[in-house]
Give the backbone structure.
Amino acid sequence: MHKVQLGQSDLQVTPICLGTMTFGEQVGEAQAHAILDRAVELGVTFWDTAEMYSVPARAETYGATETILGRWFAKHPGMREKIVLASKVAGPSRGMPWVRAGQGMTAADIVASCEGSLRRLQTDVIDLYQIHWPERHVPAFGTLYYDPAKETTQTPIREQLEALVGLVRQGKIRQIGLSNETPWGVHEFVRLAEAHGLPRVVSTQNPYCLLNRSFENALDETCHRLGVSLLAYSPLGVGLLSGKYDASGTTGPDAPQGTRMAFESVRKQRWGRPEALVAARRYNQLARDHGLTPTQMALAFCYGKWQVTSTIIGVTSLAQLEEDCAVWGTQLPKAVLAEINQLRWEMGDPGQ
C-alpha cells in the first residue's frame, strides 16, 4: 500500500489506518495480535490507539488496548520502526474519573498521560500524539450547538501546546495532532504555533462518514488552507453502514449480540439515534441498488474523498479487516455520488 504525507510533517502514512479501540473489550488479546499480524501483511502500517481505550470505556479496561499493542511489539522485535503509531491523551473527564478528574488538562496531565502510554506501548516514542477531545467546551459527540454558558476551560491552548512541544523536544513524541476539533480550534493551534515558533499540529481525527459529513461544513476548508490532514474515524458509523442492523430494524436493546450497539453506552450516543438508522438503511439500499455492498460504498466514499488523508477502520475480526482493505481502489460512479449527495440533502447528518 502506498504512503501519503501527514500534514506538513515528514511522517508518511498508509491511507488506511487500523483503529484498535475494540482490543481489550470486544476483541481478546490473541485475536487482536492476529489482526495486527494480518494488517502488516496487507501493508496497513498506520495504527491508532488512545490511553482511554478500550471502548466502551470502563475503569477496568482503561489502558488495555495500549497494553495489548505493547505486548505485540515485544513479541516482534524490530517491527516498531515499521509502524507509524498514533495515540491520544484524553481530555477532561467526560464522566470518566479513572482517566482524569476535574475540568482542566494541565501540562502535567499531558506529560503524565504520555509517559503512561509509552510504558503500556513498550516504546520510547509515539509518532503522532493527539488531544483526544478539546479541553474547552465544544459541540461534539452528538452535541450540535456551541453554548458559551457551558464554557469551563481552565487550561489555555498555549499551555497545552507548550506541553506537547516539550515532549517533542524530549524525543517522546514526533508529531502533534488533534481530534474531535472545530475550525476555530485547528486554526488557533496553528496560529499559536506560528506566532511562537512552535511545532504545528499535523492532523485532526474527526468523525467522517455518510451519516456525518459535518467536517465538510467549513472544517475541510480550514484544514486544506492550513495544511492539516483529516484522519477520518467511524467511516461505517459504528457498523450502521455495514448493513448489519438493517434486518433487525433496531439499534436498541435487541440489536444483534456482539455488535457495538449491544452496549447500552453506545446506543445512547449519536449513532443510536433512530434517525441515524433510518438514514443508514437508505444509504445501504442505495449501495445494493448499484451492485455494491453497504460496506463497499461507505468505505469507497471515504477512501476517495480529497478531504481524507487516512481512513481509520475499526475491526473485530480478520474477515472484517480483509473486507475493508479489499475496498481500497473502488471508485464510486458520479451517478452514485450524486445520489449520495441527494440523500444527505434530504436527511442531513444524523450521526453528528
Summary: The first strand starts at residue 4 and ends at 5.
